[in-house]
From TrEMBL:
The keyword rRNA processing does not apply. The keyword Coiled coil does not apply. The lineage of its organism: Eukaryota, Fungi, Fungi incertae sedis, Mucoromycota, Glomeromycotina. GO terms for biological process: protein O-linked glycosylation via mannose. The chain crosses the membrane at residues 35-55. Its main location: membrane. This is 4791_t:CDS:1.
Length: 445
């Protein structure tokens, strides 16, 4: 009769102990037995990890405390808290470095906030314009200040290894900066200047820096008002834009974004007098002298929607696209994400983060900007990005927005907000973004 020992080589003279020894040897050499042992060990490890994770997050201690009745030791602080939380005593530079720890150390170690600090303290509900400044663009800063007539948070980038005022080149640049402030009281009243140092090229130290997402974050972080305008270079606000934004701050308080339509003069224009009102600008647009510019689109054909703007009423962006990079205003802090700093200059990534985390994009037709190059000597007029650099940036952005979808989807789920209206932008956009990863990857749409 067949039994479990039928496959073992048992001789008639074999004793029971030898039979058991042969069985153990066979079992040890058996492939099936090894698989069963491996499965057992794997499930044991998974169970142990899950049980430990549950205890840690359920508030149950893994071991009993040595003495439950033992009182906690009171440690006297060695510094003056002045009745505030210790977080308020952290210097701005240290706090910024910790918040932006992925930035190159050459930048974060060479940041001096408020190198020049405005005399006026802006109201909390005011809007601070961000500005990127280099030594050959000081006049542009003055021009922006005169047009904005409000607080400005400017990042001044020194193309030097460090902010060493014993260096003749650094000393000369900083002296020019101080001189223009000395001569113009409006700069002293309204502009905070934050110094950043860092060489753009070790082989060619004379290369001037260009604006990046990092510079935007510096200006935003040290702005002294609750709202911040993300402004491109050579872009100028109309005289009423600031007051119109302030009158519509309720949109910003609810974590939404105000998009500022940007217009440029066309080749048909012979004079370049900036319009002040929606009516004046509309006449120029209808006459073919100016056009609505969305970077990457033909004039008047971008997501900002020329037809909706022409109607003159408040409206939201309906045809959002992930490469859309307008000038816009948002809250400085709160739940508004910081611009990812893996790119040099990609404001589209900033807006993409805000959009998929629930911000609605509003357009107030009366608040607009004019883009016009008033400084012919500006190095920013000459693009220096090679074809390879553009290809690399494009590939990086493709990987980034997929990553952002997963990251923020996880945050919505953990916060219990996945089934709320706040997550709808993410569901709509990421369903398209991740379509190549398998249709229906994101459920609940």
């Amino acid at each position: 009769m067949f039994n479990i020992f039928s496959t073992l080589p048992v001789s008639p003279s074999s004793s029971r102990p030898s039979t058991m020894t042969n069985f153990i040897r066979w079992l040890w050499r058996s492939k099936l037995a090894r698989i069963l042992v491996l499965v057992y060990l794997t499930f044991s490890a998974v169970f142990l990890f899950s049980f430990t994770h549950f205890l840690r997050h359920s508030g149950q201690p893994l071991t009993e405390p040595e003495n439950k009745n033992k009182s906690s030791a009171i440690v006297d602080r060695t510094y003056d808290t002045k009745g505030l939380s210790p977080i308020h005593e952290i210097k701005d530079k240290v706090r910024f470095n910790k918040m932006h720890s992925k930035m190159p150390q050459v930048y974060t170690d060479s940041v001096i906030p408020y190198y020049l600090r405005a005399y006026n303290t802006p109201e909390a509900e005011d809007v601070s314009a961000t500005a990127f400044v280099t030594e050959n663009r000081l006049e542009d800063l003055l021009r922006l200040t005169e047009m904005w007539q409000g607080p400005i948070s400017a990042t001044f980038h020194l193309p030097a290894k460090s902010i060493d005022e014993t260096d003749p080149a650094v000393r000369k640049t900083l002296l020019n900066l101080k001189n223009i402030f000395t001569k113009n009281s409006i700069l002293r009243r309204n502009v905070d200047v934050h110094l950043v140092a860092g060489l753009i090229s070790s082989k060619n130290p004379e290369i001037l820096p260009r604006p990046t997402n990092f510079h935007l974050n510096v200006a935003r972080f040290f702005a002294r008002s609750d709202f911040v305008m993300f402004l491109d270079h050579d872009t100028w606000p109309s005289s009423n834009t600031r007051s119109i934004i302030r009158n519509n701050k309720h949109l910003l308080v609810q974590n939404d974004v105000i998009v500022l339509p940007t217009f440029i003069f066309t080749e048909n224009a012979t004079t370049y007098e900036f319009p002040d009102t929606h009516t004046e600008l509309l006449d120029l647009v209808n006459g073919g002298l100016m056009g609505l510019q969305d970077d990457g689109w033909e004039l008047g054909s971008g997501p900002t929607s020329l037809n909706s703007w022409a109607n003159g009423d408040l409206y939201s962006i309906e045809e959002y696209e992930l490469h859309y990079r307008p000038n816009f205003v948002s809250k400085k802090g709160g739940s508004i994400p910081w611009c990812t700093e893996r790119f040099d200059d990609n404001k589209a990534a900033c807006l993409y983060q805000m959009y998929i985390t629930g911000s609605e994009l509003w357009v107030i037709p009366d608040a607009f900007l004019i883009r016009h190059h008033l400084n012919p000597d500006s190095h920013l007029l000459k693009p220096n990005e090679s074809k390879w650099a553009k290809a690399i940036d494009s590939r990086m952005y493709t990987k980034y927005y997929r990553e952002a979808c997963i990251h923020y989807a996880r945050q919505f789920v953990m916060a219990g907000e996945w089934d709320t209206n706040k997550a709808q932008h993410l569901k709509n956009e990421c369903n398209r973004v991740l379509i190549n990863w398998g249709k229906g990857l994101i459920e609940g749409i």
